[in-house]
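#onboarding

Welcome to the new folks! Below is a worked example of what a typical request in this channel looks like: someone posts a single protein sequence, and someone else replies with the predicted structure as tokens. Don't worry about understanding the tokens yet, we'll cover that in week two.

Example request:
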Amino acid sequence: MPRFARFRILVAIFATFAAAAPLLTAADGAVASRPPTAAGYILVGFAGGFIRHDNPHHGPVQLAQRILSDLPKGASIQVFENRHRKIAYKAILRLLDTNHDGVLSSEEKSQARIILFGHSWGASAVVLLSRELDRAGIHVLLTVQVDSVAKPWQSDKVIPENVAAAANFYQPHGLVHGRAHITAADDSKTQILGNYRFDYQKTPVPCQGASWFQRVFTPSHMQSQCDPRLWTQVEGLVRQRMEPQPVNVAALPQP
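Example response:
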């Protein structure tokens, strides 16, 4: 691996450690949840880096809290640390197993209405989880990546064919910056809604709870996790997928 690439990874690790909130108890890495009584919408978010699933300053956590209050009946929303992707996968299987027999039938799989979103390493976890669901024959309605950063052994570029629609938000500056372009493994099955660019050197936003390390070394990546305009647009896309009729979505920047 080139020396600069190794340095960039180390910077990302230090930045996310510096951003992590004090540890709070959680049995399985999940935050807000409203257990479904039937196969409803299943929304799963992933926090970036080493940030906790309940960090109140983190974009995915704030999004989950806003949506939780008016989820459709039978829907569930949870946020996980990105390292708990396997736990998130098992949680999805449990929610889809409506007769609780431990085996997903074809009918139960067909009822899947899953939406995945995440930031940084959490955005990469979204793609990996989608692939795991694809291998299980489970469809995903929507994936949203925000300033997606893949770990060295991961790939967050190609969206698998079980995903109906995918969106990518990124910023291009700094040692840690998101993937600028995602593609579909099969264009006939997956719609890439767009690769949307944000520039915080032109339009900076304040971030509460950010560490000095983030402010000095990864300011643009930091701002992508707390930018209210960006996360309002993510929220609009998520809500749109849960509405049978058209809804108003905040204007997106040009891809």
